[in-house]
Records
---
Amino acid sequence: MPETVACMTGTSPDIAAQWARVRERLKAEVGDVEYRTWLKQIVLGPLEEDEISLFLPTRFLRDWVRGQYGDRLQELWRLENRFVQRVELQVQRVSDAAAASAVAVETPAPVEPESPAATPASLSEARHDLAAPLDTRFTFDSFVVGKPNEFAYACARRVAEKPSSPGFNPLFLYGGVGLGKTHLMHAIGSELTSGGRVSVAYMSAEKFMYRFIAAIRSQSTMEFKEQLRSVDVLMIDDLQFLIGKDNTQEEFFHTFNALVDAGRQIVVSADKSPSDLSGLEDRLRTRLGCGMVADIHATTFELRISILEAKAQASGVSVPSKVLEFLAHKITSNVRELEGALNRLIAHANLFGRPVTLESTQDVLHDILKAHDRRVTIEEIQRKVSEHWNIRLTDMSSARRARAVARPRQVAMYLAKQLTSRSLPEIGRKFGNRDHTTVMHAVSRVTELMERDAAFAEDVELLRRMLEG
Ligand code: ADP
Ligand code: MG
């Protein structure tokens, strides 16, 4: 290893300062309440090669933070320090972690909340930071337009130019993961706020729910409502999260009506069209479909190439077109992964000062490419696991709770989390519309059992190997 890498190993004061900045950004993004409930307890560990370790006091917290904030933590770290490629979240008791690391930035309180909606440390803080800040990288200029997204792009532009025009209110953007919904929403927001006169509130549906629950608990729902109703533009991202959350849906419905009646603009995103979002209240679904509904389709090869070209050019590193074509062929699922792969190539090129070639690409992206060679689906996992324990496939989604079916179901959820890139709520939905907390529980339960029971661990490992092919 060259010296540049060796001197990055271990926890240096630099790393501590970077960590402090990562925390600050994350705090600004998620708000105080979530930060205190989940993230404050993270303790910085060492940086070894390209992997930074972060410690959490309990497995529950570790899984929750990994599921909800893992990707973002990684992105923020990469922005701070281009040597960091991976963030490894580990369970470690506070005292051990502090001893292992020279910089325990804060002394965490080792509490273990029972559910994600557990009472945050200070509820009144929920009122002060209503919306998440906009990501300045997500602009219309940095959005590459092609056939699959040109309609959604045009609608977003139109709303940014002339908010609240009839026919475009609400604007409902939908499409699969990583296809640019959040990017477009931020672009609308930045465009509108750049003039300074329009107030824009952007938040994920999940955050909307947390804010709402926090407001109820701190008896400040009136303020919450007033604040929401005072904005010119309200944007709610990933609305599918509100499925099954009836009270929150109700609140959103009323806010929605109040804003539209007052001539304000609403922008909503989801993974499906309003008519396909089963589990949403009918009247809400109807209202959501009343404005403009725009679909972002899966990327085409041409669009992937254009996106890669634009991003490579912006990075200043020269990437041969053969490499771009190779990536566009291999990574077809979503733009986020495509971008992640390219970023890693660029980081390596910068780090080692070597040109990017097809050969170095295969080497540097070995793990990503391997994962894309074989995509395991949740259905496959359910099938294999049911066969293995001789239960009916339908029991993967049934309500039966007998151990004989519940345990295999938990294993299937665990494997789904490990082997696919599906989020916890998405996995839950595939298992008879279970809540994401159930999936989270299954993951930690199986991890725990595997540690205690070698025969069980062997079973699970066997299944994993079979599925990975
Ligand atoms: P979604 O919200 O639909 O899951 P995002 O908006 O978060 O997806 O996009 C994932 C990543 O891919 C972001 O970094 C975004 O900037 C990038 N991205 C997606 N589509 C495009 C595009 N057409 N042009 C440029 N970047 C894109
Ligand atoms: Mg998004």
---
Amino acid sequence: MYNFSYQNPVNIVFGKNEIGKLSELLAKDSKIMITYGGGSIKKNGVHDQVVKALEGYSYIEFGGIEPNPKYETLMNAIALGKKEKVDFLLAVGGGSVIDGTKFIAAAIPMERDPWDIMLGNAAVEKAVPIGTILTLPATGSEMNSGAVISRISTKEKYAFMSPWVMPKFSILDPEVCYSLPKRQVANGIVDAFVHTIEQYLTYPVNAMVQDYFSESLLKTLIEIAPKVMKEQPEYDDCANFMWTATMALNGLIGCGVPQDWATHEIGHELTALHNIDHARTLAIVLPGVMNVMRNAKRDKLEQYAYRIWNISAGSSEERINQAIQRTEDFFESVGINTHLKDYDVNETTIGIITERFKERKTLLGERQDIGYGTVAEILRSRL
Ligand code: NZQ
Ligand code: ZN
């Protein structure tokens, strides 16, 4: 196991009706800006619960943060937040609203163009404090320091991380899942699955807790997927789903182990160029990464095949092939297509992505050995 230090300061408030506890978490004299997305919170009652809990507080609202939050939209929120001198941001939504709010939080105290954060040209040195009310189990953004922001004008999508944008608290009420469209439930399952895989399917460093923990998250997702995909899911299935998605990317399973993230980096390009849902890009790319990187990942692939899918018969190649197939089948079982052609993406896009990685001199993967040529090979295997 590698050396590591781990600190996660996010206060998680988990369970039914916990949104009502907001007032216990916020200072009475705060000047709050509530941020939200396209309006789902106004249809499912979450907005009403927030308004009720904030009686007596001073707050403004900024709605309209879109999925894959856009720099262009967020700049309006930043201007509003500066003008109104807000001192607390309350994100109410899925990963996009939370990520967008992290960007707003880091940008409000800045003088220069905050896109520089995304390009790695400016460090986050402070931020307006954030709290979140999660409405979609998927990204783990409610308990981590990352955010992924897109820019329409340049068709770019990049991530940044900073301890400054860790939420002070996150309220996780599994009942928010009841109003989720099945497409978003499926996205959440696949995103959480791939977050776990990115930190697990690398090479062994004898990190037993991290391995068994990751395997428990993967198995939970496989077991609850058909249950949360039901028309009316049970509360406990939603609760397990929500907690699994949070645990998959709050830093814990990534302690002291190598991490991959190639699937995410390649997937972000597919979203930037074709606006494909984040999780769907992962379902396309991951089987390609497993396949093309099978030699580098052999030990862990065999472990994954055995411990997750009970595959023990056959040669190493056969077991790995089966494990990749089972992974694809799992994604398809929740209605997510796994090939580029299903999304009308062809060789031209592979050319553009390859060119982008070549220009940026990007090296991906746990050994930083996935260059642009290998990216092309991975994507071609998914046509
Ligand atoms: O915008 P509204 O109207 O709220 O509707 C949203 C949106 O259309 C809807 N929704 C959310 N909660 C709902 C609901 N509809 C009904 N009932 C509810 N309870 O779902 C749609 C998708 O929401 P979005 O926030 O975009 O989804 P998700 O949580 O999957 O977030 C995806 C974004 O997170 C980034 C992705 O790149 C993508 O931009 N990621 C962030 C990460 C992080 N910060 O650590 C890691 C991830 O790998 C990921 O990259
Ligand atoms: Zn993800």
